[in-house]
Amino acid sequence: MVSFFSPPQNIRAEEVSFVVHDFGIAMTGDPAQGKDADHLSYANPDAPKGGKLNRSEIGTFDTVNPFSIKGTAASGLGMIYDKLTARSWDEPFTLYPLIAETLEVPEDRSALIVHINPKAKFNDGTPITADDLLFSFETLKEKGRPNMRRIYQQQVASVEKLAPLSVKFTFGGEYNRETVMILAMMPVLSQAWWHGRNFDETLLEMPNANGPYLIKDLQPGNRITYARNPDYWAADLFANKGFNNFDEISFTYFRDDTTALESFLKGDIDLRYEFDPRKWNTQYNADGIDKQEFPHRRPQKVDAMIFNLRRPLFNDLNVRKALFLSFDGDWVRDTIFQNTVERTNSYFPNSILSANLPIYGADMDKRTRLHTAKKLLEQAGWHVERNQLVKNGQPFRFEILFNQAKDEKIALSFAQSLKRLGITATARRLDSAAFQNRLMDYDYDMVLHNWQNSLSPGTEQMVYWGCDAAQQPGRFNYAGICDPTIDATAKAIADARSYAALTEQAHTLDRELIGQFMSIPLFYSGADRIALRKNALGYPEKTPLYGPIIETWWAADQR
pLDDT tens digits for 162-196? Predict the structure, then answer.
């Protein structure tokens, strides 16, 4: 049994082998913090309460239901909903008590029994019960977001109410060790409040939720303001100490990033993440602005130029290696990114999961790389005729697809380098809708896109790299990679029983993926760049593994 506290005496699990944990549940191994801990390691339990935080977002919104596929949800809605457990952002994948006071899990993780905290309640004061949990599961299974529907439908065999505050989930089908963790992060909806309302429609009224904040003001598409709930039932729980310090938090929407930056520079916005190193170096040097870089140890997003191996043009490994060598990464890093980033050499960059392999060709100068690329293309049957690279009379031509303006210079630089080999590459930018359609249909030669990993990779690795996903439109195997060895390694990651075993499997997978040359990984920074209105905000001394957690920050000027 995995137990936060002693389970109610009138509820008994089946006669199976149990492992007992006194506090918290981890994907692998044991939680880092025991029940004698007073607060999460990266929070300041003495942080002052009060003040306001103004943030910015790009685009628009038309719903305050973040769990439905209908509409575009407003930012910050996670603050009005609690989940069964709270995640620690200083551990790879560990959960601590929140709505669930106790969890019971057999050793093979084939089931989950949830015992709800008797003190848990919705914002109107009504208690959270097993009926609400059952309602939440059934609603999200049928009408929730695709990832919820997939897991709840395919990995849960049955659900039953054991007591007024206890529910048992029995797993089946495609369940794995991660299923327990995902179910334990389920949000809980009020069955009474949703009765008579259509979950599939956009929502623009404050729901009866259960989190630390309430919606104070709502201007659809323009602004949403949250106020801290003075009657929040879980304010003093371990996982919340030092969190939720602002009295008000607002998100103002802007049509584009340029106007959002202007608003920050005028002092209307209190903090801003900056992802463009060029802007970071040139746009934040005014008085009244504090530039902070927070190093972290989470895997960075893997931005890459991805080959579509479904195209015969890229079937040959030597061709992919040649194009990899042709990319002038040094020039792009120094000129476009002003030497503020590192070249990505892993599918888990910046983390303990990276195999830290050397970049192919890093020991060659530019001339040698192009000469080696030419030899590799010749080995693959390509040769130059009238300044064009051809094979069987067909020229080497392909299209590079992207949808972000920031990617255009990278694509054009790559195309220019390929000209020296007689290859014609056309860079094409699409709007978001058209790009997404082409991406989901795998309708491209090469695409600038990304993969995102966590410190606790699991079953999503089969979706990224598995043979089945390569043949299924709408998955995330953008490269179309299909290799039985990679399939086996990716599956082993999800089955790992210890973090040491998981790390070893991740290193193996990383080496296998890098060796396939299925993409040209680009760059990462290894730190979160945040610009602050000077003297406006305070934050804890410790930055957790996953980077700064704004929920632990506070107002220094107490406006």
Answer: 999 999 999 998 898 899 999 999 999 999 999 99
CB 382 within 8 A of CB 396: yes
Q: For residues 537 and 53, is the Cβ–Cβ distance under 8 A?
A: yes
Q: What is the spatial distance between Cα 21 and Cα 33, in angstroms, rounded to a whole number?
A: 11
Do 152 and 284 reside in the same domain of the chain? yes
Tokens of 345: 């050499």
Domain tally for the chain? Answer: 2
Among 401, 460, 393, residue whose Cα is nearest residue 426: 401
CA 122 from chain centre, in angstroms, equals: 28
Q: Tens digit of pLDDT for each residue in 140-158? A: 999 999 889 989 999 999 9
Give the phi and the psi of residue 120 in degrees, each rounded to 5.
-65, 135
**Complete DSSP assignment for 314-383:** G--HHHHHHHHHHS-HHHIIIIISTT-SEE---SSTTSTT---PPPTTTTS-HHHHHHHHHHHHHHTT-E
Cα–Cα distance for residue pair 445/138, rounded to 1 Å = 41
Which residue in the block uniquely carries the two structure tokens 């584009």? 256
Domain that holds residue 347: 302-524
Count the Cβ atoms, other than its own, within 10 Å of residue 188: 25
CATH of the domain at 414: 3.10.105.10
User: 555: which strand partners?
Assistant: 537
Distances (CA, A) of 3 to 130, 166, 390: 18, 14, 65
Based on the domain organization, do 245 and 319 belong to the same domain? no
What H or E segment, with its residue span, contains residue 439? Answer: helix 432-440
Same domain, 112 and 238: yes
Report pTM.
0.88
The answer on 555 and 517 residing in a single domain is no
